[in-house]
Request: fold
Amino acid sequence: MFARLIDFLLCRFASFITGVRPQPAIAEQSSEGHRVYFANHNSHGDFILLWISLPYEVRKQTRPVAGKDYWTKGAIRRFLAYKVFNMLLIERNSQDPKAAIRQMSEALVNDSLIIFPEGTRKMDDDLPLQPFKSGLFYLAKENPDCEFVPVWISNMNNVLPKGFILPIPLLCDLYVGEPLKIGTEETKEVFLTRAQSALLNLNVSEKGKS
Reply:
């Protein structure tokens, strides 16, 4: 009950601070089937913005993927990770490179996931998107029937800049693209390029510069 209350308060607070304006495409996401939402990564608040934008029935079946080392430090983080966000926490320094893929594949049996294929937050504001890590390809290869949905998060890096504890009230937008599935014979390079292009094409600010 307490976790549900925290969920409600966080959603209202994040919506108030960011004035998040998701496209109808994300508000209309169905709770039927499981998918992987992959987004650009500028801030620790990225996953919250995407998570709260999903309909409640979808949100409670969608798990953000995050580093176990960060989210298990302290009782508050652990409570948020396990009880509020129902995160899928992975070992970032595991000796088994395939462990995280297995963990995510097992989670996809019952839930959808939110991932950030850049791996780490982008620090260079002049770089729209960092190269994707190969994990996105291997996850798709292990789950060929799963839909991968690109989501561009706009302006979140200015709401919670690096080094800031308190967020700055600014408007944010979410743009959702067409779902992708890996091709039968698609190589790692081709799939990652296609996925990265699908995400970059949602960046309205870059389109305005061209």
